[in-house]
From TrEMBL:
GO MF entries: acetylglucosaminyltransferase activity
Gene3D superfamilies: 3.90.550.50
Protein name (record): (rape) hypothetical protein
Entries under InterPro entries matching the protein: DUF604
Length: 490
């Protein structure tokens, strides 16, 4: 009310002021028009839901759509859009005949033949060594010869050719184009769930930046890195393709993901970051990072060729296949960190579901255990700050370093909707006691079993757990459960 009065007062004062310089008839006209305008404004502003105004006046880029929210009266004609599922995604994987032989090992574990839609794009027809093309691989398309000699330009042109071709192949169900490298490992169910949260009829560009401050400083903190993969909504691709030739000419010779980022920025489309997408611009042992994944479903991992195998005593390929075993039972839980304590022994237990368990021989608060142990090295040796997240240094202190267990096997009890994952110690007896009091030592535990319900509700915050030492003294049992109301974890 106060707002309305003030508004009227200002108008009246203005009108009075103006009236001194105007003839009477003009004045009356002005008052009549102003009054009518005020009336209209009032009716419009106060009798309509705010949402509608926003939609009509301030969102020219949005496609008009009929959601049940706006037209509640005619429920017969307008039904809600069905939720996004896997068939609404179209994958655009830019690969090459040179690398496909071993890179297909990072795509096939998640690709679901005849269910996942999309293609791997090759620069030339596959040779005999790659034929017959495996059933388990995405179908391939050979890019048209771009007759560009410079290799640097070729990759960005190939991305846009591939995107163009995919756009032409899209059907009425295609909502999202997912662009990835030929060594991007996706967690499909989580990807679909993540995209479901966004309106595919709007201009969306969804991805994540690099783990390295340095890369982000050079290329962009708000760029979606290609290896982690990025998703473009249908209208975004439609808009982008119209600009593509201009953009290639304007930003000659940059990486294809940088080109997408710059071209989209020219169109006013900015990145929406999604935490579970990982470029993995890191070297060495990334177990520290994977053991303290942020509270967000895992969507992608990348760069398996430049990091150590993620499980001990396994090859790169074996370790990828191994991780995918849990992804098949309850993907929403994978890598989700749950922390609990065994008060009797003063132990802290951190579970990264489906990947690892860390047992600490001291009580460490959650804010500390949330930080990844810096087991890895940066992409390049640069000055600190190196990473976009906090880390903990690896030390020799048995009170600060954990006994490490890695995922071994999974068993699902469908009757009770429970899933049990087993984790085996990396090196038995590798951790001396924290205190001289030997009874408190965790050194003799050789395996951990983690029991959880199979129905994990994504986005409902964190979960709690209880630690129990099982009958056999070498097995630690952890039960994941919903947290009690206002439960303090640490
Ligand atoms: C996905 O949703 C569409 C409706 O848009 C439906 O026709 C189709 O059967 C669904 N596919 C899957 C795999 O659930
Ligand atoms: C995919 O579909 C094709 C044609 O319908 C069929 O021949 C092929 O066996 C299917 N592949 C798989 C892995 O189910
Ligand atoms: C656990 O920590 C508390 C507090 O520091 C200490 O009093 C207690 O003796 C510890 N218990 C064991 C088993 O070490
Ligand atoms: C699950 O339930 C079915 C039917 O009630 C039963 O036959 C089966 O043995 C049960 N399986 C397990 C693992 O308990
Ligand atoms: C260690 O455990 C043994 C057997 O459970 C017990 O007799 C002993 O008192 C414990 N020692 C300490 C220091 O707690
Ligand atoms: C660990 O195992 C060794 C040898 O089996 C045994 O002597 C020691 O008491 C055990 N320690 C604990 C804390 O159980």
């Amino acid at each position: 009310m106060a707002f309305e009065n003030n508004n009227n007062n200002t108008k009246v004062t203005k009108l009075t002021h103006i009236s001194q310089n105007l003839s009477l008839s003009t004045l009356w006209k002005s008052i009549a028009i102003s009054g009518a305008l005020l009336f209209l404004l009032h009716t419009f502003a106060f009798n309509h839901p705010h949402k509608m105004i926003t939609h009509k006046l301030f969102a020219p880029l949005e496609f008009t759509f009929s959601s049940s929210e706006i037209s509640t009266s005619s429920s017969s004609q307008t039904s809600r859009e069905p939720p996004t599922n896997i068939s609404h995604l179209l994958f655009v994987i830019v690969g090459s005949t040179k690398t496909w032989r071993y890179r297909r090992g990072y795509i096939e574990p998640w690709w679901r033949p005849n269910i996942t839609r999309g293609h791997v794009f090759l620069e030339k027809p596959p040779g005999r060594d790659l034929l017959p093309w495996p059933q388990q691989s995405p179908p391939f398309i050979v890019n048209k010869d771009s007759s560009v000699t410079n290799a640097k330009f070729k990759t960005q042109i190939r991305l846009f050719q591939s995107l163009h071709e995919s756009f032409n192949n899209a059907n009425k169900d295609t909502r999202w184009f997912v662009i990835a490298d030929d060594d991007t490992l996706f967690f499909l169910d989580n990807l679909v769930k993540a995209l479901e949260q966004y309106d595919h009829k709007k201009h969306y560009y969804i991805g994540m930046n690099s783990e390295n401050v340095w890369s982000n400083a050079i290329f962009g903190f708000d760029m979606g890195y290609g290896g982690g993969g990025y998703a473009l909504s249908y209208p975004t691709v439609e808009t982008l393709l119209k600009r593509m030739e201009d953009c290639i000419a304007r930003y000659l010779g940059v990486y294809s993901d940088l080109l997408s980022f710059r071209c989209l920025a020219d169109l006013g489309i900015d990145l929406t970051m999604n935490k579970g997408i990982h470029q993995i611009d890191l070297h060495g042992d990334i177990s520290g990072l994977l053991s303290a994944h942020p509270q967000s479903p895992l969507i992608s991992l990348h760069h398996f060729d430049v990091i150590n195998p993620i499980f001990p005593a396994m090859s790169r390929q074996e370790s990828v296949n191994h991780l995918m075993k849990t992804a098949k039972t309850d993907q929403s839980r994978i890598l989700q960190q749950t922390i609990c304590y065994q008060r009797g022994n003063n132990w802290s237990v951190s579970v990264s579901w489906g990947y690892s368990v860390h047992v600490y021989q001291s009580v460490l608060p959650r804010n500390y255990l949330k930080r990844p142990l810096e087991t890895f090295r940066p992409w390049k040796n640069v000055r600190i700050p190196v990473y976009t997240f906090n880390t903990r240094r690896v030390t020799n202190d048995p009170c600060e370093m954990p006994l490490q267990f890695f995922f071994d096997s999974v068993a699902e009890d469908k009757n009770q909707s429970l899933v049990t994952t087993m984790y085996k110690v990396k090196t038995l007896g590798s951790l001396p006691p924290c205190l001289p009091n030997v009874n408190q030592s965790a050194g003799n535990i050789s395996q951990v079993s983690v029991i959880a319900a199979t129905m994990h509700k994504v986005g409902e915050g964190i979960e709690c757990c209880d630690v129990e030492k099982a009958s056999s003294s070498d097995t630690l049992e952890v039960k994941i459960r919903a947290c009690h109301k206002d439960e303090v974890l640490a």
